[in-house]
Specification:
The protein has 428 residues and is mainly alpha-helical. The protein has helices spanning 2-5, 49-65, 77-92, 95-113, 123-135, 140-159, 186-196, 203-211, 215-219, 285-305, 326-340, 349-360, 365-372, 379-386, 391-410; strands at 16-19, 25-33, 39-46, 226-227, 232-235, 237-239, 244-245, 263-264, 269-271, 279-282. The chain has 15 helices and 10 strands. Strand 2 (25-33) and strand 3 (39-46) form a beta hairpin.
Length: 428
């Protein structure tokens, strides 16, 4: 017993267990180094030697696994999310990604979960939060986006040693029912192209419907990446949504974007982020002719603008050469649909339409992936989402089946008479 009470010196960095003068057992475990360079030595206190020995071994296992919580600030969900989004995410992600993170943190996550201690957050807290979001009117997609944001934020907290596990990887994400999208038919596309031909920048909509460019890719297209003689374009840049701040000091009582003296605080475009997104696309002959005409029209606008012309090199530009604004471009798309008498749809539906046209034409998968800018690993999934089995394709396949089974003459459509009750007759 006397040996148990005696405190012996352990080698530097080694754990120690001893009986204190207070009658309790104590353990000391070095788990790393503090920010000031001194050893981070943790203290454990238990009633019995067996209990403190077990606790010391557990802490040593966490040290080995790298899951010991760092000493320092006791984070709440609010303080960590606000620190993460402004001091970590903002420096390393794109402007668009940061905008999404910032809205999720400010509008949803901090009001809903901010009071929790970071290390005590549980998967059930997140699942209950997602459920409350949807009960309060948020779409499942909005809740799912908030889930992705906090998963990334907590993952960074784990890497930095502030928490031992990422509970967002355990929590069940809100269920998303994939929206069924019906691409535009050939007749609808022709109506859109006819109406677009009456507009300034008409080639912008042909590019969307024929090549499936994303909005940012079309608006970020530069003349230096257009090779009309060779018959191709290179996709290298993405137009970013503009962001403004007051130029009047906030005295106009308007939002920054509507300030008469507003100032742009975000770059106009960025490089396409993925290798698959940076791609070369061949141009159909009619589109080459249309782009040549568009180039001539832009040349006339340059002469009319004179000194006001901004020589920035955009293919689709404002009358003075500046970049188009994505939000305005979206409203022009909606007006085009209305004027063409075509059913309403998202601007991104034009991309689905282009993918479907490629499918109908029987273009090989590897070529489709290159045109659409899909990464090889997820291209099959993207083809399944973007390309739709349309009526003409189903009719074509049905005709092929009929020809194979009954021959070309026997594969014609047959009208099956209905019974008086409206049901089809039984087959013998």
């Amino acid at each position: 017993m006397a040996e148990d009470k005696k405190r012996t010196r352990q080698p530097n960095g080694a754990s120690s267990i001893y009986l204190g003068k207070d009658g309790k057992w104590h353990g000391r475990v070095t788990v790393g180094v503090r920010p000031d360079g001194k050893p981070d030595r943790r203290h454990i206190e238990r009633k019995t030697r067996a209990e403190v020995t077990e606790a010391v071994r557990d802490l040593e296992q966490k040290r080995k696994a790298g899951t010991v919580r760092k000493v320092g600030q006791q984070w709440t969900v609010r303080t960590w999310l606000e620190h993460w989004v402004e001091n970590i995410a903002k420096k390393y992600v794109s402007e668009n990604s940061y905008d999404g993170y910032e809205v999720d943190v400010r509008v949803h996550l901090v009001p809903g979960l901010g009071a929790h201690k970071l290390e005590r957050l549980e998967p059930e807290h997140l699942e209950g939060f997602y459920e409350r979001m949807q009960k309060n009117g948020s779409a499942a997609g909005t809740a799912h986006h908030a889930h992705r944001t906090i998963r990334v934020a907590l993952g960074e907290a784990v890497r930095r040693g502030h928490i031992a596990k990422n509970v967002a990887e355990i929590a069940k994400a809100p269920r998303l029912d994939e929206e069924e999208i019906e691409p535009y038919t050939i007749e609808e596309i022709q109506s859109l192209l006819l109406e677009a031909s009456k507009l300034r920048n008409s080639a912008r909509w042909v590019i969307a419907l024929a090549l499936g460019l994303r909005q940012g890719e079309a608006l970020g297209l530069m003349w230096e990446d257009v090779y009309l003689d060779a018959g191709y374009i290179r996709i290298r840049k993405n137009r970013l949504r503009p962001k403004y701040e007051h130029g009047c000091g906030g005295t106009c009582d308007r939002k920054p974007g509507y300030c008469p003296q507003r100032q742009q605080i975000r770059r106009e475009h960025k490089s396409t982020k993925s290798r698959a997104g940076r791609r070369t696309i061949g141009l159909p002959v009619p589109l080459i002719k249309l782009l040549r005409k568009h180039q001539e029209e832009q040349g006339r606008e340059r002469l009319e603008a004179g000194e006001e012309w901004e020589d920035k090199g955009y293919v689709f530009a404002q009358p003075t050469g500046g970049p188009l604004i994505p939000n305005t471009d979206y409203h022009h798309w909606k007006k085009l649909l209305e004027d063409a008498g075509v059913r309403d749809g998202r601007l991104h539906d034009a991309r689905h339409t282009a993918g479907t046209v490629l499918l109908l034409l029987g273009v090989p998968d590897v070529v489709v992936d290159a045109i659409m800018g899909w990464e090889p690993g997820g291209s099959a999934r993207m083809r399944a989402r973007y390309m739709h089995v349309t009526g003409p394709l189903l009719k074509h396949v049905a005709q092929q089946v009929g020809d194979a089974l009954w021959g070309p003459a026997g594969g014609q459509a047959v009208t099956v008479p209905e019974q008086q009750d409206g049901s089809a007759p039984a087959l013998n």
